[in-house]
Backbone:
C-alpha cells in the first residue's frame, strides 16, 4: 500500500528521521521517499500499519493511501448518503474552480454520496503527478492527534520544572528508540519523566533512574497522572545503580542528558558524566536495540562497537539547541519490529 505522510513542518529533519524509524518498525518496503517539501511516501503492508504509523508520529499531520490516477478510479460511498469531501493537497480552499475536484464531486454524487465539508465520513486528496501530467487520488487514512500531545506540556503536569522537553520532541525521541508494546526502555537521567512518559504511552515498559530523589518522586507523579506508571524508578547515581540491578536487559536506552544549567550534574563535567554513566547501561541493551541521546553536543560517549547513525540538531529557543542522536551496534542487524 502506497501511503503519503504529510509532515507538520516543525523540525523537518527530525520529522523525517522519526517517520523513517516508525515506518521501518512497521514493515516499510524500502526507505521512505520525499515526494514534496513536506511529504514522504512509504510502502506499507496494509491500512492497519498505516493507521498505527500516523497514531505514533508526533511530527506529522496525516497519512493518505494512493488509490490511483483520478481519471482511472472512482471510489464509491460505502452506504447511500455517505458524506465525503475532497481538496487538492497543498492548496488553500476557495479560489478558482478546479476541474479535478469537479470531476470527483460529480462521480461521488452520481454514486449516491453527499458532499460534507464540515464533518465528512471520508476525506480525499488530489495530488498533481508530474510524471504523467495527471492527477492522483488519495484517501485519508488517519490524522495525527496533536491535542493530546499539547496536553502533556510540562506546565500542565503535576510535577513541573522550568525546563522540560516539549512532548512533541519527547515522542519523536521515543519513536527513534523503537518504543512500543513488548519492549522495555530505560532512562538513566529520568528528570521529570517526559521521555519515559512518551515511551510508556507507546506501550513500552519503562525504568528510570535519577540522582535527585525529588526528581524520582516527581517523575512517578507525572507517569501516574498520565496513567502509565513506571515498572521501576530508582534513586541514586546511575552508574552505581547499573551495577546493582542484576541481569536486567532493555530494548532501548532513551535519555535527555543533563547539561549543567537548569538540569545540574552535581559539579561533574557533562562529557565525563555521560562517559561514566551511559556505557554500563548501553551494555544492557539487547542485540538490535538502540541508544537515543538528547544532548547539548559534545563527543560521543559510547565506545565501539556503538556508532552514531542519526544526528539531528533542533533549536528549542534562542539559547538552547538540543541534538538528537541515535546509536546502534555495528554489525548487530536491524532493530526488532514492533
Residues:
Amino acid at each position: 500500500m502506497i501511503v503519503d505522510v504529510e509532515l507538520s513542518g516543525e523540525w523537518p529533519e527530525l520529522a523525517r528521521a522519526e517517520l523513517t524509524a516508525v515506518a521501518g518498525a512497521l514493515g516499510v518496503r524500502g526507505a521512505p521517499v520525499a515526494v514534496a517539501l513536506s511529504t514522504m511516501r512509504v510502502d506499507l503492508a496494509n491500512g492497519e500499519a498505516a493507521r498505527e504509523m500516523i497514531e505514533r508520529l508526533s511530527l506529522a499531520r496525516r497519512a493518505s493511501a494512493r488509490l490511483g490516477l483520478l481519471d482511472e478510479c472512482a471510489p464509491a460511498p460505502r452506504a447511500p448518503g455517505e458524506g465525503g469531501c475532497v481538496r487538492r493537497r497543498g492548496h488553500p480552499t476557495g479560489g478558482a474552480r478546479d476541474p479535478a475536484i469537479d470531476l470527483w464531486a460529480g462521480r461521488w454524487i452520481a454514486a449516491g454520496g453527499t458532499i460534507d465539508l464540515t464533518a465528512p465520513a471520508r476525506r480525499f486528496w488530489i495530488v498533481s503527478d508530474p510524471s504523467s501530467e495527471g492527477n492522483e487520488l488519495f484517501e485519508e487514512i488517519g490524522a495525527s492527534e496533536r491535542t493530546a500531545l499539547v496536553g502533556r506540556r510540562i506546565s500542565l503536569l503535576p510535577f513541573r520544572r522550568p525546563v522540560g522537553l516539549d512532548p512533541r520532541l519527547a515522542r519523536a525521541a521515543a519513536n527513534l528508540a523503537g518504543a512500543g508494546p513488548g519492549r522495555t526502555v530505560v532512562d538513566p537521567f529520568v528528570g521529570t519523566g517526559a521521555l519515559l512518559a512518551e515511551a510508556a504511552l507507546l506501550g513500552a515498559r519503562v525504568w528510570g533512574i535519577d540522582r535527585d530523589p525529588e526528581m524520582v518522586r516527581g517523575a512517578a507523579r507525572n507517569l501516574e497522572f498520565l496513567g502509565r506508571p513506571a515498572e521501576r524508578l530508582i534513586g541514586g547515581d546511575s552508574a552505581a545503580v547499573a551495577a546493582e540491578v542484576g541481569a536486567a536487559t532493555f530494548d532501548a536506552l532513551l535519555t535527555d542528558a543533563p547539561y549543567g544549567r537548569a538540569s545540574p550534574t552535581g559539579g561533574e563535567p557533562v562529557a565525563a558524566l555521560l562517559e561514566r554513566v551511559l556505557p554500563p547501561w548501553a551494555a544492557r541493551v539487547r542485540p538490535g536495540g538502540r541508544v537515543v541521546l538528547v544532548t547539548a553536543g559534545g563527543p560521543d560517549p559510547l565506545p565501539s562497537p556503538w556508532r552514531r547513525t542519526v544526528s539531528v540538531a533542533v533549536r528549542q529557543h534562542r539559547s538552547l539547541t538540543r541534538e538528537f542522536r541515535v546509536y546502534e551496534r555495528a554489525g548487530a542487524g536491524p532493530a526488532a519490529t514492533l
